Amino acid sequence: MFVRVKTTPNSPRKSVQLVEGVRLGGKVRQRIVRHVGVATDEAELVRLKELGEYLKARIGHERQPGLFPPEQAAEQVIEAGRVEAATPDSTPLRVDLKALREERRIVTGIHEAYGCVYRCC
């Protein structure tokens, strides 16, 4: 599920919608879950996008309850968007995977627990 901004040709208005992808047969279609509103200026568009994020978090929480409250999840998404918008000309970090080297390894889980039992007996 995501927040989509849809524009109409020759119109300054922008529609904000909550959309999810649905598989019908072998094709994926987009289904409008909720129409959030229509923005006429940039400030209203920002407010409607934030409202869309809150609605997305709430609907997602109703479908499958999560560990954190939906308001907190929406705040994190909105804050991440603000940080990204504040630095528009920053380039993503490039990592050379071939240059990565392992410094140490921590093994946890069933091997750690039963390995200790096996070694003790």
Task: Describe the protein in words.
There is one protein chain. 41% of the residues lie in helices and 25% in strands. The termini are far apart. It has 121 residues and is an alpha+beta fold. The chain has helices spanning 42-63, 70-86, 110-120, and strands at residues 2-7, 14-24, 27-39. Strand 1 (2-7) and strand 2 form a beta hairpin. It has one domain (2-95). It has a 3-stranded antiparallel beta sheet, with helices on one face. The chain is built from 3 helices and 3 strands, in the order E-E-E-H-H-H.
What labels describe this entry?
elongated, 121 residues, 3 helices, 3-stranded antiparallel beta sheet, alpha+beta
How many structural domains can be distinguished in the coordinates?
Answer: 1
**Strand fraction:** 15-25%
The DSSP helix count reads 3
Largest sheet: 3 strands, antiparallel
Order of helices and strands: EEEHHH
Summarize model confidence as the mean pLDDT.
86
Outline the fold blueprint.
Blueprint: E1 2-7, E2 14-24, E3 27-39, H1 42-63, H2 70-86, H3 110-120
Brief description of this entry?
With 121 residues, this protein is α+β, with helices and mostly antiparallel strands.
